[in-house]
Amino acid sequence: MNASTPPVLPDHRLAAGVTRLALRYRGHFCPETIQHVLTDSYDRLAAHAHVRTHLVVLAEHLTTERLDALAHIQGAPGTGLPRVLFVCSQNAGRSQLAAALLAHRAAGRVVVSSAGPRPAAEVAPVVAQVLAEAGVGLTETAFPKPLTEEVVQAADIIITMGFGDACPIVPGRRYLDWPVADPEGAPVDVVRGIRDEIDTHVTELLDSLPAT
Fold first, then answer.
1. Three-state SS for 96?
2. Closest alpha carbon to 4 in 36, 28, 42
3. In degrees rounded to 5, what are phi and psi of residue 102?
4. Burial of residue 181, with CB atoms counted within 10 A of its CB: 0-12 exposed, 13-18 middle, 19 or more buried
5. Phi/psi of residue 58, nearest 5 degrees
6. Which tens digit of pLDDT belongs to each residue from 87-126?
7. In three state form, how does the secondary structure of 38-95 look?
């Protein structure tokens, strides 16, 4: 990225996000770099959005995740927790289930993120339903996100959900593939079974991590 010539913001409301993020990352990233990442995040999300009402807010959330990943790559203090990235094609079903379940079960032991090479417009409603039945909620940052280079590079463990060839290979990372069925279009009873299968994998993953 060329931080010296920031791009024109595609939405004037993003300027407030640049200001907020510049304060948050003062000493780590200059405003020009933040504007580059925020603009790129907005453009990536806009490419798949059917409704643009919340794009500004979502772009700021995605930018925060990407900047946190960059800070981790650069060795910023306080970023030493294991980082787990879940990847599925649209980041709307399996990877969202896995990320929510791991974040809930880990209770702060890991940093969890999810993404997909072809993100959908929204998380499948049935995903939120079966998670709620298990006492797990989706956060405001649980939306389909594009797979970006810095998030992959920052991950210690990268877990693909049924397809391994679409995820970049970074040396030194632990790669796993969970061959779980796609919940898209499936009846809710089937999706509950997928949730429980993923939850079993999550428990095994947590058991394999060093105690903190």
1. helix
2. 36
3. -65, -45
4. middle
5. -65, -40
6. 999 999 999 999 999 999 998 899 999 999 999 989 999 9
7. HHHHHHHHHCCCCCCCCHHHHHHHHHHHHHHHHHHHCCCCCCCCCEEEEECCCCCCHH
